[in-house]
Amino acid sequence: MRKNELIKTRLYFVLAALLLTAVCIIVYTSMRNSEKPNDRPYELAQEQESAAESAATDLQQVNSTPYPDSSTQRPAPSQGKDLAAQDPPVGMTYSLAVTDGYLEVYDAQTGTLYMETAIAYDLLPERVQKQIDEGKYFETEEALLEFLENYSS
After folding, report:
1. CA 121/CA 129 separation, integer angstroms
2. 9-27 per-position pLDDT tens digit
3. Is 100 left (phi over 0), alpha (psi -120 to 50) or beta?
4. Which of 46, 57, 95, 117 is most buried (most C-beta within 10 Å)?
């Protein structure tokens, strides 16, 4: 008999907890629905407008930042030695250089920037750093991309 009373007591506590949860849900939904129906869409529209204005401002800032593009003529900088002063080997199309600690790819014939990479020069093996310092060239885009793929993270 004592065991049955213990089970009943536990059951009452579980039922009370479920009832309390149901009341909380009902109160929450009724408070949420009691807002004026036109207030919330207006707030959402204002939030969307401010987000759009913020995005437009960010885009203007990005567009006004002077980033080099592939048509920019400049010599290919490197660690310690100016590769632009060297004539590229015959048949070589791309050269590697280091700017601000990262690898950049240049058109070997014209010296224009071809591609920026996120490959840190300092993280490359010493032998590869030495090759780049001495002038690392690639004949084809496939060879270039294979090299970059091997050293990208």
Report:
1. 7
2. 888 888 888 888 888 788 8
3. left
4. 95
